[in-house]
Amino acid sequence: MTNNIQTLMHQAAQVEQSGNWQQAVTFYQQAYEQSTSLLINQHLVRALLQLHDYEQAARLIDEYHDDYLQHADLTTLYLTTLTHQHKYTLCWCVYYQLPHPLPTQYQLIKTSEATYQTNHAAAVQQLQKQLMHITALPSLLSQLQLLQQADYLPRAAFITMAQFVLRDPFLSALLRGYLLDKLRQLRCQAPVVYLFFGEEKQVIPYQLPPMNASVKQQQIQQLLTEKLSIDQPQLLNTFTAQLQLDAATLYPCADQLIADPQLWAYGYYQWLHGEKITDKRLKWLEKCLQINNDLLY
Asked: Source organism's superkingdom (predicted)?
């Protein structure tokens, strides 16, 4: 840490003692511009919370997201920021992925969530109702934008909403995958019925693997990455983005539907080069490419 940064940190600490949090933020920001370290980051986040600037605090936490999940004091700071934003679904997703969650962290979320639900019951119900009718929106993009608001639902309200929406025959495959994976992250242990391209299925989300855990999709990723990184690295980003969309589209059935990862890798290679996929064994790949084409182009 340079002398200039040390001076700024010392000045920030001094004005903190007098309660001048705005000036403290200014000093921390100046220090952070010179050294984007985790230490300065957390000081700046704490000062921003004192000013109720939760949005900027959350953006700074995202810069060191993994670090905030590894240290109990930083995790509590992260969860505190999310509770101030009233992002309770996201709160629980973060809490449940912690390696060593604390009872105090659980109580922090539970108390804040209960208070918010009591004081803002009408707002919660209105958002839940909007999400339950998400397929009434005209485009998939507008549906995805609304779905981002689901983080503001309490955990129980999100689960109820998702259980309802997953039985909607007009729900897109992409949103279906997102909702199922979110229920997994929320450790939903109740059986959930969903439609998979018209076929009714039932799962317990808590028992599902993560969306990115498909062994066969990982094999496809490895095969294409090895080839494209040498021959045509400019196509690698397009392929990676497509594969991520397809992972959601086929979730949680990808490994059952992908019989031959090498054949799929070749199918992706054809698609990337503008060739038509003719192999009937790749009907699910064709379906994914057709469904997600409008999102990428």
From this structure: Bacteria
